Amino acid sequence: MKQAVVAEGLSKSFGAVEALKAASFSVSGAELFGLIGADGAGKTTLFRILATLLLPDSGKATLLDLDTVAGYRQIRTRIGYMPGRFSLYQDLSVEENLNFFATVFGATVEENYELIRDIYAQLEPFRKRRAGQLSGGMKQKLALSCALVHRPELLLLDEPTTGVDAVSRQEFWQMLRRLKSQGITILVSTPYMDEASLCDRVAFMQDGRILAIDTPQGITKLFTKPLFAVRASDKHRLIIELRSFEHTRSAYAFGSSVHYTDRRSDAAPEELAAWLRSRGFGDATVERIAPGIEDTFMALMENGAAQSRKEEAGDG
Amino acid sequence: MKRFIAFVRKEFYHIVRDRRTAAILFGMPILQLLLFGYAIRNEISEVRTGILDYSHDVVTEALSDKLFSSGTFRYAGSLASEKEIPAAFASGKMNEVVVFEPGFAGRLQKDGVAHMQIVTDGSDPNVSRTVTGYTESVVRDYLSEQRDGSVQFAGVEVVPVMMFNPSLKSVYLFVPGLMAMLLMLVSALMTSISITREKESGTMELLLVSSLRPAQIIVGKVVPYLLLSFINVVTVVALAFFVFGVPCRGSVALLFAESLLFIMTALSLGILISTITDSQQVAMMISLAGLLLPTVLLSGFIFPISSMPVPLQVISNIIPARWYLVIVRAVMLKGAGIAELWRETLVLLAMTLFFMAASVRKFSERLQ
Amino acid sequence: MGEQVIQTEKLTKRFGNFTAVDEISFSVSAGEIFGFLGANGAGKTTAMKMLTGLLAPTSGSATVAGFDVYRQTESIKRGIGYMSQRFSLYDDLTPRENIRFFGGIYGLGKREIAEKGERLLDSLDLTEAADTRLAALPLGWKQKLAFSVALLHEPKLVFLDEPTGGVDPLTRRRFWDMIYQTAASGVTVFVTTHYMDEAEYCDRVSIMVDGRIAALDTPEALKRNFDAADMNDVFIRLARPAKRGEA
């Protein structure tokens, strides 16, 4: 089996809302594939279709060479699924949850303990505690253990790190890397752009559409315009002033600097720096930088939005 | 099978860990029974009874004495004619009048049957029911004592008349009604809530993906509540018997078997409700408004069906509790067997199968 | 620094023998954007509840918008704005109805609500969607509306609890434009977030670890002191050794 997941033109509407618009992508065996997008981008609908919980309106998908519609029974025994919300029994203890899901999936904790040991070891001191009383990071680890306990070949993780603090998120991704190294294919979604760089390949999603698919390094090549990091002491005023500059295409706060793109393809940083100094930013610095994943996503989003507007205008 | 046991165990954890639910489940039957029971007991502490004796013979006088010596009934005067009854009730002087037909003792001896009337003030139907039943039981006691003696009596036919609100026959009505209500509540409400809770929390997604079959999930949800409801039935029947002396004249096994059938009806209704909604709140509203209210109001528990307007009488036919009530009353109070009750049993069985089939059909293996 | 809008002195909250918030002392001045960070379970939520008058402290003292957190909780609630990702507006009401409802709750007069409401809808470009149920609007719009509604009664101080969770990067930045504008108009912004780049946008940042404030400074100073490349680094270095963070 080369491709663990193949999706072709998946579409799904709920009433008037088109949640998913002809999404196509594929995930290879033992790949860590990330779906990046905000709430409402269609990630959860896509996951539910792949998890055989929803039927697509059109298009088809195969998981582990099994069709999600015809072969749903077999698929269900071979995948591990972690829904978007924390979906364990809050009134059951850590141990009871794990045992329950093991039994229900026809496995035992003992036979697959090796696989979850890394993750579960951190939970063991609390194994008598009710799941509802765990912290966000611990809950996610428990949910992951429960999704892994029947040794699935493919993991579908829908926003496992949402609402989890940066430390727990980092640990969580380290666990995913280890699982991948054991040959498990992982499809994971996240709204955090910084997590995209931890995947083998990523797909950007927006408004039910897949905007782009590539490796984290490759995808930034889609950002074609020169990008500048601008720094000055009063960031808010800096953004406002930059947006009033006649050649500005976009100016967005990015961590400690402001990322600026110019309408012209041959803009010089010196020109902008001089202009800023003339506007009273004595300490302004401008430096050309390589675009990151978030820059790329935002640029693609803006293009996508422009395109949808054009389509709508064409339709109307 | 292992999966199934794990599932049922998990359900029990849910029930036991949610203290409030557990308290309601186990406490409510006892509390309800005691409330109903004692409320009714207190009301019969003083019955102002008048006697209208058209016969004035040995038996009627013995019966009257027996009545007033029981302590519950207070002699409130004798009447000369039925025409005086409304005035006596209206003034509050009396709330019960016992009427003996002319030649009471003679008829009893000759025909084996004599008639007496128990007229009660129906403006308070609960008191009336209680009073009537109590009077009947005193008469029954008296007759059974006589039977043991030398005099041969075949029987006295008691005709209760609830003035202003004619209906009804027994004091023990609330036990069957209470059973129907509790079973509806525990079985239908609790199952529908417990299934929709899994939908709300997202755990249903995991259960579906786990390749448990829908039937396994449904049965896993049903079994714990079946057991709990059955415990409730036994508790109510036992309490009714030991605390209030409500008899079970028919077969206890039949009573329990019919109760199990009714529990199944209620459980399948609960599952059906959970298939049409994803929210606990809606499930609760449907269970309360759609199931519990009709069970209380339209089953004959509180308002006799025979006194309902015809459209409501027709509607009452589709209320499962109506049939269950007939069965329980017949078994407990009349000592009826399956020979008399096969029709009602069949109706319940058909309803159960229908709801079961509908819910298994509607219970999707997917979301939506 | 100007007027202190929040001032706490050894503020503490214990639940049984568990100390959720352990003697935190800090102050926030008017017009400041104050980032309140911490790992899950570090005590952030409990501290916020005390500052918004929803939970009585065990010991220590604090004033919020000039009111005492023990005795004047009602005045605090009237004097602050609050918006959280979890609870903000009613999805089954329209923007206009939401404004009318929350305006009423905050004790604004009818005419005031109408005037401010229209201005607000206009400034958010929501005039066309003013009578559409909120559920049908994109998340980004809802969050901006929720923020504006929290400011409807012109509080001196607004609490934002993870206001940008789940939002796309463009909308997140537009939201921060609003935060900047609000702060520039003199309103103090007290904000929590899991996005570490957003910590950089704050004037000052505090990081809670195990119920205590482990660090409090400007993002630049924090990065310098911890010799870190960005705020994510600072956060991980501080929060990683947390003893109880994961319980």
Automatic annotation (TrEMBL), chain A:
Protein keywords: ATP-binding, Nucleotide-binding
Keyword Iron-sulfur belongs to the record: no
This protein's record includes keyword Nucleotide-binding: yes
UniProt xrefs under InterPro entries: AAA+_ATPase (IPR003593), ABC_transporter-like_ATP-bd (IPR003439), ABC_transporter-like_CS (IPR017871), P-loop_NTPase (IPR027417)
Pfam families, sorted: ABC_tran
GO MF entry, a single one: ATP hydrolysis activity
Stretches assigned to the ABC transporter domain: 5-232
PROSITE patterns, per database record: ABC_TRANSPORTER_1, ABC_TRANSPORTER_2
Name of the protein in question: ABC transporter ATP-binding protein
Species: Chlorobaculum thiosulfatiphilum
Lineage: Bacteria, Pseudomonadati, Chlorobiota, Chlorobiia, Chlorobiales
From TrEMBL, chain B:
Parts of the chain that traverse the membrane: 21-40, 171-195, 222-246, 252-273, 285-305, 341-360
UniProtKB keywords: Cell membrane, Membrane, Transmembrane, Transmembrane helix, Transport
Membrane topology value: Multi-pass membrane protein
Localization (cell): Cell membrane
GO (cellular component) term, any one: plasma membrane
Family statement drawn from the similarity comment of this UniProt entry: Belongs to the ABC-2 integral membrane protein family.
Stated name of the protein: ABC transporter permease
Lineage, highest ranks first: Bacteria, Pseudomonadati, Chlorobiota, Chlorobiia, Chlorobiales
From TrEMBL, chain C:
UniProt entry tagged with the keyword Membrane: no
Pfam family, one: ABC_tran
Key word ATP-binding present: yes
ABC transporter domain sequence ranges: 6-235
Signal peptide: none
Keywords: ATP-binding, Nucleotide-binding
Xref: PROSITE patterns: ABC_TRANSPORTER_2 (PS50893)
Gene3D superfamilies: P-loop containing nucleotide triphosphate hydrolases
InterPro entries linked to this entry: AAA+_ATPase, ABC_transporter-like_ATP-bd, P-loop_NTPase
One Gene Ontology molecular-function label: ATP hydrolysis activity
Record's protein name: ABC transporter ATP-binding protein
Species per Swiss-Prot/TrEMBL record: Chlorobaculum thiosulfatiphilum (Chlorobium limicola f.sp. thiosulfatophilum)
Higher taxonomy: Bacteria, Pseudomonadati, Chlorobiota, Chlorobiia, Chlorobiales
